[in-house]
Amino acid sequence: KRLGKARYAVYTTDMGARVATSFRLAQDLPLAAAHGELSMLYQPIVDLNSGHIVGWEALMRWRHPQQGWISPVTFIPLAEQNDLILKLGRFALTESLAQATTWSNQPSASSPPYIAINLSARHFHDPGLVPMVQEALKAYDFPPERLVIEITESVALFDVDSAERVINRLDRLGTTLSLDDFGTGYSSLSYLAKLHPKIIKIDRSFVSPPTKGPYLQRTLEAIISLCQALKIHAIAEGIETASQLGELRSLGCEFGQGFLFSSAVSASEIDDTQASVLRNWERAVSAITTAA
Ligand code: C2E
Ligand code: MG
Ligand code: MG
Ligand code: MG
């Protein structure tokens, strides 16, 4: 009230516009794949002790004909409201495997990089998931051990027992389960015992928070210790600075990804990115050593 009536009007108009945009996007999304508006970018996952790329995370992008680039933070939740998310998952899987089969290995790395795709909780309640993965692996002759499935937790697993059965079947196919955004939202401790992920991705709110107090710091340390105790590989998300890299290395975190190394790139940029990631890692490590 103190701000006056005009303020109130501005606020409602803005809200109204946002709802209208989101409604429009939700209407357009079902045809986005058919119109060739969806694509995948890939962000390297790096061994923090060698600078070598161990895997690539596939991240979806939508280029809307009128609105331009739309972030998955906006359109994935719209797709999650119905079965459209299952179609987007199929697109992410097949597109990534089709592109990944042609990638060469970084010469210095010991094994070929894996590809990590993001699947929403809804997939793990879908009887079609296991056959879909099986068919895609076969169609692209892709080794199952090089496919990592990240379970992204924007919605809760509503039936953990049925998800557990699906995950066990994926495990028998030879794929690897990774728990995304660990420490936030629905990504909880109770899932560890049920789903036994081989990988945990530590949410970037613990790695590069706007302000870092001792509480966040100790939580980060505790998550890394938890991973070590349970023999789960830890990947730190959102590494942006050399000092964050230094700290993670000293805490014994094995892997990480973030803008310090590279943002997500298109398939055609993969080869160049391998070289630049190593350079960025070397520069950061020498900065840490000089500072110490
Ligand atoms: P995510 O799976 O946790 O992916 C990491 C996000 O953090 C990506 O955003 C990535 O670009 C961003 N990021 C990476 N390094 C840094 C950094 O150093 N600093 C900062 N500030 N951000 C960094 P993106 O691509 O916008 O994706 C956002 C989220 O959308 C993903 O979070 C994931 O939950 C979802 N998503 C993306 N692609 C897909 C998909 O194909 N399927 C599903 N179901 N979800 C997807
Ligand atoms: Mg992810
Ligand atoms: Mg994540
Ligand atoms: Mg995250």
Automatic annotation (TrEMBL):
Domain EAL as annotated: residue spans: 22-278
Keywords annotated in UniProt: Membrane, Transmembrane, Transmembrane helix
Lineage: Bacteria, Bacillati, Actinomycetota, Acidimicrobiia, Acidimicrobiales
Protein name, per record: Bifunctional diguanylate cyclase/phosphodiesterase
